[in-house]
Specification:
This protein has 16 helices and 15 strands. A four-stranded parallel beta sheet has the order 4-3-9-10, with helices on both faces. A four-stranded antiparallel beta sheet has the order 5-6-7-8. It folds into three domains: 267 residues, Rossmann fold, CATH 3.40.50.620; 147 residues, Isoleucyl-tRNA Synthetase, Domain 1 (Orthogonal Bundle), CATH 1.10.730; 54 residues, no CATH class. A hairpin with a 4-residue loop joins strand 1 and strand 2. It is α/β, with parallel strands linked by helices and 489 residues long. It binds one RNA strand of 74 nucleotides through helix 1, helix 6, helix 8, strand 12 and helix 11.
Length: 489
RNA sequence: GGUCGGUUAGCCGAGUGGUUAGGCAACGGUCUGCAAAACCGUCUACAGCGGUUCGAAUCCGCUACCGACCUCCA
């Protein structure tokens, strides 16, 4: 099996991935809070961990991938005084909270499908695990790291920190938090402002609440991940992923909860993807500077110069390393689009060319090792893609007759290119047609056949007319050596 | 203010103590009725100032600038 090294946020080092259970890998990734459409930022963790999911599977692990849907307990603004995000949306839209949840969950899944992100093995919802969350609150109360006030239960960070280190993941020291954590307006029920809710008593008008021994209420946001990861992956599991912005306080709180409840940590490898920025600033819902995925795919945002195919987005994201920030721009996206086209054209060429020599001008086995070294090095897809373009150049040279390839090498190169591009990187051909498109393709092809005949008769005015008129309707004609190609503008 | 990270050619974006990352754009060429596309070739940068070293863009220090987290966030 390939030796995979991944950067563990907990140790700030690249570590060899060694599974808890041989040949099995467990992954938990923080999914979306379903109160709005997914934006470009959401695509990064989805694609990053989809890549990991695919790669672990590819190299032979049986992977259980859990990605949650947050549908309750996630508060707006201040951690304790804010309104539940789903509840707020439901109130404004005059819908049942679960209608909001269902609507945005469906849309999220559709966007993920478009990005060719595989569905996780399990996609649990917080609202479906209220009982388990209550059990964990109980457990933490029992071990003494939580306290109850007026029907709400809070995690006692200060007490926890006397025995363990609260802040170890994000490198925070509790003493600093005293001065940097914002004080709440009015009197808080909490002993300290950095304590966080495990169970919140709901106001009577709160539309999402469940009975419990403490109060009619709802679980705290951080709890769901601790509970659902444990339930489906065990008390100790391999990988926990999520956006860098969740490291503190969300993941820190998860660690504290697990340790308080079970006496030990659950996660072996913490992985965090970096942010997507726009004009150098983080793209986020609360900042109002985000572009939704639907807007990207349809070009309907004022910042967009054109529509972008979901695969362009995927390739754009894979061309940067997941731990570095990635800045959005039309120019960068269009560069990715053209590069991806070039890659797929070469792939098409690769299946057309045939053996043309007794030795190859390109050491395929060495190239293979370089590709896997790249991805094994903390999923370094930019390097991997750079290697793919080395192969592209070679393939084109073979097609042009200026390089040789043996039959065995051709078979090997085809397999490797397919494996890397489709199975591992999860890219899809952008010109894949549906049944409806085939009819359309037929009609356009008919016009282009007529144009070919006109060209043969040197009837340039008719040939140009067809080309120009189609262009006016958004269809671009490209003549090739042995025919033509067309695409939408 | 605290903590952490970053500053790479026109743009995006990797990486390494000494040898061309890659993509896009640009330029030159091949092909072509024209155009586009495609293909081939060219383009050698690492914020500033010190230090370590035979050698640093790569390690260390300082300065400047940028960002993330510290409140919900992918």
């Amino acid at each position: 099996m390939e030796k995979l090294f991944i950067y563990n946020t907990a140790s700030r080092k690249k570590e060899e991935f060694i599974a808890q259970v041989e040949n099995h890998a467990g992954m938990y990734v923080c999914g979306p809070t379903v109160y709005g459409d997914a934006h470009l930022g959401h695509s990064r963790p989805a694609i990053t961990f989809d890549l990991l999911f695919r790669y672990l599977t590819y190299i032979g692990y049986k992977v259980r991938y859990v990605r949650n849907i947050t549908d309750v307990g996630h508060l707006e603004n201040d951690a304790d005084e804010g309104e539940d995000k789903i509840g707020k949306k439901a109130r404004i839209a005059q819908l049942e909270p679960m209608e909001v949840v269902q609507y945005y969950t469906n849309r999220y899944r559709e966007n993920m499908r478009q990005l060719n992100v595989l569905p996780p093995s399990i996609e649990p919802q917080a609202s479906g695990h209220i009982i388990e969350q209550q059990a964990m609150v109980d457990q933490i109360l029992k071990t003494g790291f939580a306290y109850e006030v007026n029907g709400s239960v809070y995690f006692d960070v200060e007490k926890y920190n006397t025995k363990y280190h609260y802040g170890k993941l994000s490198g925070r020291v509790l003493e600093d938090l005293y001065s940097t954590t914002r004080e709440l307006d009015g009197q808080s029920e909490k002993k300290n402002s950095f304590d966080f809710a495990l169970w919140k008593k709901a106001n009577p008008e709160h539309i999402m609440q469940w009975p419990s021994k403490w109060s009619e209420g709802f679980p705290g946001w951080h709890l769901e991940c601790s509970v659902m990861s444990t339930k489906y992956l065990g008390e100790v599991f391999d990988i926990h992923g999520g956006g860098l912005d969740l490291m503190f306080p969300h993941h820190e709180c998860e660690i504290a909860q697990s340790v308080a409840a079970n006496g030990h940590e659950s996660v072996k490898y913490w992985m965090h993807n970096n942010m997507i920025t726009i004009n150098g600033q983080k793209m986020g819902k609360s900042l109002g500077n985000f572009i939704t995925l639907d807007e990207l795919f349809s070009g309907s945002h004022q910042l967009l110069e054109k529509t972008y195919h979901p695969m362009t987005i995927r390739f754009f994201i894979l061309q940067a390393h997941y731990r570095n920030p990635l800045d959005f721009s039309n120019e960068a996206l269009q560069a990715a689009e053209k590069g991806l086209d070039r890659l797929f054209n070469a792939l098409k060429t690769l299946h057309k060319i045939s053996e043309n020599g007794t030795s190859s001008a390109f050491d395929i086995k060495k190239w293979r090792d370089k590709c896997f070294d790249a991805i094994n090095d903390d999923l370094n897809t930019p390097i991997l893609i750079a290697h793919l373009f080395d192969a592209v150049k070679f393939i084109n040279s073979v097609a042009a007759g200026s390089a040789q390839i043996t039959g065995d090498d051709l078979i090997l190169l085809r397999k490797l290119m397919n494996d890397i591009i489709f199975s591992i990187l999860g890219l899809k051909n952008t010109s894949e047609n549906t049944a409806l498109d085939e009819k359309f393709d037929d009609v356009v092809s008919l016009l282009l056949e007529i144009r070919q005949e006109a060209k043969k008769d040197k009837n340039w005015s008719l040939a140009d007319k067809i080309r120009d008129e189609l262009l006016e309707r958004g269809i671009v004609i490209k003549d090739t050596k042995d025919g033509y190609e067309w695409s939408f503008k």
